[in-house]
């Protein structure tokens, strides 16, 4: 080892799902939206003047934050632009939120089965953590989150299970942890889940994180956001402006704004995905699969006789990519993104052969 | 203070230059390029299929890294794609490089007068640092960088002075610090400077950072990159993939590639900026200004009688934005970005009145 290597931070990075270069596959492995982004995005692109790219973007991305605030506001719970933080995908938002809010010597808490980036961020920053076990039905045990901690984070619906915890449970966790920031990662909330957004007015230690990558069909554009009370958001902004001032580029701001403004299209595509998910659940059950009752755009399924890893490999051979995690307790499950109805019909057809 | 605030990381963020929403000003305050990006960028935008934005981008941004490698390679010193790291502007690259390489208890070193983000990153991560004084002519004193340290960083040309250190000085600093990573921040190297890229083959502890925001006219797109030996780059990638896997969006990859491939246009616009800079220097000297001999796309100028802050305010009133730093040793200087020839003629005209 060279001398300079002694000072290098060594980490085991997160492994993203495969992004195959082939176009002839059915891609159900990274929870993307099977439908194109709102038509306004193509229009925004077409109307964008390339010459403007010579100038820095607005570091505050105000237009985008205003559009997001308007989109998530409901009459009883309006959200202001200064309650919105934006980042380069929700991973950027979460990475900065860990750095900002989980700055204690006490362990942070997140479930043993959850988004596999949480422990990576904790390791990167040297944040201690504990991972309370979900119960045998993959449910969060509330009592685990009422013990001393330096912060709490969980997705709702959870990934990769798709299970939704109810708002009462979340409110109790937030209310009983006044000395911790509680982050609810709602990447998958728009597929029939219930957002904790109405709790934001009441709790200054609650941060909600959402993304444009799933329900808004813009994974390729990299936009995530967080909502919280002004003070919480201002701390996050201070850290962000100490890391990188200009993260949202001019095209991202223009396209993100156009995307989030089209509420009708958003409801149309999320509605279609939910319908296809429910259809797929029924077919998978008929084929001998069981799965938690997902409220997300994926189904986490296990088969009564055929091992998940074998199905994973055989599906890949058949040109269908799904996600398989070789991890304790979930190594006999497949996480299958809900694609178009036609894609799911093809999946069911291939699975019917594979489990015969 | 609420209980949860005890765990919050408190920082004093970097203050970027003003990005006024008005279009009727002459903007010489953030070192942007006065010319539009290469024509291929508009073409890439026009040809881009918006539907593809539903899918995640290539997390490795391989096409962009290959294009950058080709653009910076010279026959005697070829650069491979796995020697290139890309980020959301060079600030993202630098923020991650600080986190990756400056992980020692010893202080890192950078000049007292330099890019004002370095101390912000050091504070953010809790990295100790020392800031050796530049000499009275704003020259780096080599001996200061041959003392014990946990890492070294400086821009070359330096900001905001524009002064270029020669390659022999840089090589000696790199060679005599085998147990530190030395980062040479070459944001402004393309305006007549000499890059340290040829030293990369020889020193595995040398990281060169460059940007698309100045000489490549893409500040609004957010692209920066680093070049080093494979091993150094792989450490940086590990930390990057522990922070945010997908940073470069699909449009950034497509437009960045088109931009960097047009070598002729790049030479044309940097050549024009250098010519305008030299013309401006002569005119400023005639008006009683003095300045270091900038090799960057800005001039760091002080007037023999009129205070810089007064000029700064009066220029703003006249619709010309330049940068003023209220900091020790440089609070009587203006940093003036080199704009188009017409913009600089207008600047000189207004300054002639202001210093009369």
UniProtKB/TrEMBL annotation, chains A, B:
Q: Mind listing the UniProt keywords for this protein, alphabetically?
A: Amino-acid biosynthesis, Aminotransferase, Histidine biosynthesis, Pyridoxal phosphate, Transferase
Question: Reaction(s) catalyzed by this protein?
Answer: L-histidinol phosphate + 2-oxoglutarate = 3-(imidazol-4-yl)-2-oxopropyl phosphate + L-glutamate
Q: Which residues form the Aminotransferase class I/classII large domain?
A: 24-351
The pathway is:
Amino-acid biosynthesis; L-histidine biosynthesis; L-histidine from 5-phospho-alpha-D-ribose 1-diphosphate: step 7/9
The record's listing under PROSITE patterns reads: AA_TRANSFER_CLASS_2
Which EC main class describes this enzyme?
A: transferase
N-terminal signal peptide: none
Q: Which Pfam families match?
A: Aminotran_1_2
Gene Ontology terms, MF aspect:
histidinol-phosphate transaminase activity; pyridoxal phosphate binding
Give the E.C. number(s): 2.6.1.9
What domain of life is recorded for the organism? Bacteria
PTM annotation (N6-(pyridoxal phosphate)lysine): residues: 214
- Name any cofactors this protein relies on: pyridoxal 5'-phosphate
InterPro entries found in the cross-reference section: Aminotrans_II_pyridoxalP_BS (IPR001917), Aminotransferase_I/II_large (IPR004839), HisP_aminotrans (IPR005861), HistidinolP_aminotransfase (IPR050106), PyrdxlP-dep_Trfase (IPR015424), PyrdxlP-dep_Trfase_major (IPR015421), PyrdxlP-dep_Trfase_small (IPR015422)
Q: Give the record's GO biological process terms.
A: L-histidine biosynthetic process
Subunit details: Homodimer.
* Entry-linked HAMAP family: HisC_aminotrans_2
Q: Which family does it belong to?
A: Belongs to the class-II pyridoxal-phosphate-dependent aminotransferase family. Histidinol-phosphate aminotransferase subfamily.
Q: What protein name applies here?
A: Histidinol-phosphate aminotransferase
The species this protein belongs to is Gallintestinimicrobium propionicum
Write the gene name.
hisC
């Amino acid at each position: 080892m060279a001398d300079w290597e002694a000072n290098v931070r060594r980490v085991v990075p997160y492994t993203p799902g495969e992004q195959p270069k082939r176009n002839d596959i059915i891609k159900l492995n990274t929870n993307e939206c099977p439908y194109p982004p709102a038509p306004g995005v193509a229009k925004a692109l077409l109307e964008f003047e390339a010459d403007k790219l010579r100038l820095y973007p607005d570091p505050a991305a105000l237009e985008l934050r205003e559009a997001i605030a308007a989109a998530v506001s409901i009459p009883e719970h309006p959200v202001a632009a200064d309650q919105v933080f934006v980042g380069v995908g929700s991973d950027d938002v979460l990475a900065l939120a860990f750095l900002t809010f989980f700055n204690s010597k006490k362990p942070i808490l997140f479930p043993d089965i959850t988004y596999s980036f949480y422990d990576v961020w904790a390791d990167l920053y040297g944040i201690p953590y504990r991972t309370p076990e979900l119960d045998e039905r993959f449910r969060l045990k509330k009592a685990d989150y009422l013990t001393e901690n330096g912060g709490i984070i969980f997705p709702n619906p959870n990934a990769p299970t798709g299970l939704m915890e109810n708002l009462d449970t979340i409110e109790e966790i937030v209310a009983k942890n006044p000395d911790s920031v509680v982050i609810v990662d709602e990447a998958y909330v728009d597929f029939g889940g219930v957002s904790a957004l109405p709790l934001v007015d009441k709790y200054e230690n609650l941060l909600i994180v959402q993304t444009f990558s799933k329900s808004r069909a813009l994974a390729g554009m990299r936009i995530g956001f967080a909502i919280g009370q002004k003070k919480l958001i201002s701390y996050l902004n201070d850290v962000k402006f100490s890391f990188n001032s200009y993260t949202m580029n001019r095209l991202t701001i223009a396209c993100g704004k156009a995307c989030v403004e089209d509420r009708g299209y958003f409801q149309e595509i999320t509605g279609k995905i939910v319908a296809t998910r429910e259809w797929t659940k029924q077919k998978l059950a008929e084929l001998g699969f069981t799965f938690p009752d997902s409220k997300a755009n994926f189904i986490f399924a296990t088969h009564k006789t055929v091992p998940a890893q074998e199905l994973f490999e055989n599906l890949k051979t058949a040109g269908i990519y799904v996600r398989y995690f070789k991890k304790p307790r979930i190594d006999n499950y497949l996480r299958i993104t809900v694609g178009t109805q036609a894609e799911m019909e093809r999946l069911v057809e291939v699975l019917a052969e594979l489990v015969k």
